[in-house]
Design a protein that fits this description.
The chain has 233 residues and is mostly helical. It contains 12 helices and no strands. It has 2 domains: 79 residues, Endonuclease Iii, domain 2 (Orthogonal Bundle), CATH 1.10.1670; 102 residues, Endonuclease III, domain 1. Helices cover 55% and strands 0% of the residues.
């Protein structure tokens, strides 16, 4: 969790109020943003997995610039499994924490080859057994690559908006996911992630949310309050 996440606006709303607000948010976000999808560019489950691992603590735009050459050099998990880390680092050095990310994607591919017969696993347990893969990454890969929805991917935008919208007060991403799963029906789990990300990038930004232009400001409990505000328990 980042320092920014730990100081996000938080309102302690009762569960009944969270359940009342959730469908309002979902309906308006869906109407506004149509059919959003992952901004990462990929051709298959392997490329998506590697791209999402690389996207931690950096932008999707940056990842999309780095991965074409990476995937040309290593077109399959087997190819990347046999790569030298220093060479992989040359392809991902523009991304944050690239030493660890290079190590993770190589090791992940080694396990894909040895434990999953060369195929990206299509289960939560299988994906989270790979280095660099937590529930957020696994949820994205399952939903986008395999059409399986087992949860809600909680990235920095989803975390921030969940707190500002009064949908969770938890400081741990997995617990935020649990709170969201309790108030959104399973049919909404996949797209609510992308709706919140899109809204977080376009309107409810980290430093300067544009509440005056937001179509949710009439129901958002944090509208027109400064970022970092916290309710006193």
């Amino acid at each position: 969790m980042t320092a920014r996440q730990s100081s996000e606006s938080t309102r302690n709303l009762p569960l009944s109020e969270r359940k009342r607000l959730a469908p309002i948010y979902a309906e308006r976000l869906s109407a506004q943003y149509g059919d959003p999808h992952a901004a990462l560019q990929y051709a298959d489950a392997y490329q998506l997995l590697i791209a999402v691992i690389l996207s931690a603590q950096t932008t999707d735009v940056g990842v999309n610039k780095a991965t074409p050459a990476l995937f040309t050099r290593y077109p399959t998990p087997a190819d990347l499994a046999e790569a030298e880390q220093l060479e992989v680092e040359e392809y991902v050095h523009t991304l944050g924490f690239y030493h660890q990310k290079a190590k993770n994607i190589i090791r992940a591919c080694q396990l894909i080859v040895t434990e999953f017969d060369g195929h990206v696993p299509d289960t939560m347990d299988g994906l989270t057994s790979l280095p660099g893969v937590a529930r957020k990454t696994a949820n994205i890969v399952l939903g986008e690559a395999f059409g399986k929805v087992e949860g809600i991917a909680v990235d920095t935008h989803v975390f921030r908006l969940s707190h500002r919208f009064g949908l969770s007060t938890e400081a741990d991403a997995n617990k935020v996911e649990r709170d969201l799963m309790a108030i959104f029906p399973p049919a909404m789990w996949h797209r609510v992630n992308y709706d919140l990300i899109t809204h977080g990038r376009a309107v409810c930004t980290a430093k300067r949310p544009t509440c005056g232009a937001c179509f949710l400001s009439d129901v958002c409990p944090s509208a027109f309050t400064p970022p970092g505000w916290r309710e006193t328990p």
